[in-house]
């Protein structure tokens, strides 16, 4: 077996996931790279230390374990370089800190991940960055919001909780005409179903906590950049001292091996449940980009090659919406009540949308987000039926 990865260029996704990010010949033939824990790295001479004349210089700047994961992510993203950070939120905030400064104007999609909004409204504003939220479906119309000091446009598709689609290429083209950096949170689709850099994005963000890890026991994020923006991203990581742990990197790399197979199951089960929910009289709307009825379906079908296992639905409720949504979720037994997603177990959470500026909450009733895990669909459907019965009992 050769360590040369060129033969993988035309291979299928599961074949690539099985073989990227490892070089057995460098580790005595062992299939998986070892976990290298490191802070201090020794140099042979003072001159070598002064000139940093070796590949590894200190633990925060990478180890063979973290490099293996970065190499795998670069292979998936088509990126010039990847950094590893301790969480998905850090994966969003590090590039914002790296590419924005006092006096800059940043455009942030209004369907953004809630903790990202909190960071923008607190930390960025305290640092003197002007933050403006925009309509997710704006597309090339974002031209009207660009200013001479607009330095960054942050995108997320689909949007958190309500799954609005964005025309990423159109937004990127406008942003680049104004010399703005485009970042994208691509956690929902992963690089398997959407490759941001191929659509004009400069910085692709991914919460590896979710599908790459896949087992609800790791916090990690990756940030991947194109060639033009990689040097600054890498320098930001070094300056901030942000790095991911080698043990977590090892487990995420292991999770990548099965991510394609798991995503297929998540996707198939979620779409089956979404179509079933769409047929129910007690559901006002199902927010899933792969449904033909969804407003952003055309963009999803044009740009994405698949859908993951997370979507939402609007519970039809005339009054007592919050009480009904809580009763629904509390009655579930297979769907746990918990944050995050991408693991093997199903989750359900009532969605809070009160912080939206433009993309307001649906008026028909409360939104409930589902993370569809690896359980059997028929069992999950029965669990949801119990939820609907509980919600109906609330008057």
UniProtKB/TrEMBL annotation:
GO molecular function: cysteine-S-conjugate beta-lyase activity; pyridoxal phosphate binding
InterPro entries per record: Cys/Met-Metab_PyrdxlP-dep_enz, Cys_b_lyase_bac, PyrdxlP-dep_Trfase, PyrdxlP-dep_Trfase_major, PyrdxlP-dep_Trfase_small
Required co-factors: pyridoxal 5'-phosphate
N6-(pyridoxal phosphate)lysine modifications at: 210
UniProt keywords, alphabetically: Lyase, Pyridoxal phosphate
Similarity remark: Belongs to the trans-sulfuration enzymes family.
Protein name: Cystathionine beta-lyase
Organism the protein comes from: Xaviernesmea oryzae
């Amino acid at each position: 077996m050769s360590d040369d990865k060129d033969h993988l260029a035309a291979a299928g996704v599961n074949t690539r996931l099985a073989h990227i990010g490892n070089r057995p010949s460098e580790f005595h033939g062992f299939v998986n790279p070892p976990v290298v824990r490191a802070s201090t790295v020794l140099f042979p001479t003072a001159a070598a230390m002064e000139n940093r004349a070796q590949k590894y210089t200190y633990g925060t700047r990478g180890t063979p374990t973290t490099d293996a994961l970065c190499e795998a992510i670069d292979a998936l993203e088509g990126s010039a370089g990847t950094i590893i950070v301790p969480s998905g939120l850090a994966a969003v905030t590090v590039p914002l800190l790296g590419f924005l400064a006092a006096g800059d104007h940043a455009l942030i999609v209004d369907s953004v991940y809630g903790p990202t909004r909190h960071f923008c409204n607190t930390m960025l504003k305290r640092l003197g960055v002007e933050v403006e939220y925009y309509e997710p479906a704006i597309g090339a119309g974002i031209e009207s919001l660009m200013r001479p000091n607009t330095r960054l446009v942050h995108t997320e598709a689909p949007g958190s909780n309500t799954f609005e689609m964005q025309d990423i290429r159109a937004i990127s083209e406008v942003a680049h005409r104004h010399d703005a950096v485009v970042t994208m949170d691509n956690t929902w689709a992963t690089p398997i179903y959407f490759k941001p850099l191929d659509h004009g994005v400069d910085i692709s963000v991914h919460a590896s906590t979710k599908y790459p890890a896949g087992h609800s026991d790791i916090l990690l994020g990756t940030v991947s950049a194109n060639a033009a923006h990689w040097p600054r991203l890498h320098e930001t990581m070094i300056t901030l001292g942000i790095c991911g742990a080698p043990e977590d990197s090892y487990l995420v790399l292991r999770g990548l091996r099965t991510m394609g197979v798991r995503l297929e199951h998540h996707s198939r089960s979620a779409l089956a449940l979404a179509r079933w929910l769409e047929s129910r009289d007690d559901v006002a709307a199902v927010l899933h980009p792969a449904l033909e009825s969804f407003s952003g379906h055309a963009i999803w079908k044009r740009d994405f090659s698949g859908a993951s296992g997370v979507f939402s639905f609007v519970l039809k409720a005339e009054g007592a919406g919050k009480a009904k949504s809580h009763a629904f979720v509390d009655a579930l037994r297979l769907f746990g009540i918990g944050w995050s997603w991408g693991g093997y177990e199903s989750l359900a959470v009532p969605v809070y949308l009160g912080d939206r500026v433009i993309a307001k909450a649906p008026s028909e009733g409360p939104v409930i987000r589902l993370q569809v895990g690896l359980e059997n669909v028929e069992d999950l459907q029965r669990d949801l039926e119990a939820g609907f019965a509980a919600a109906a009992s609330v008057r």
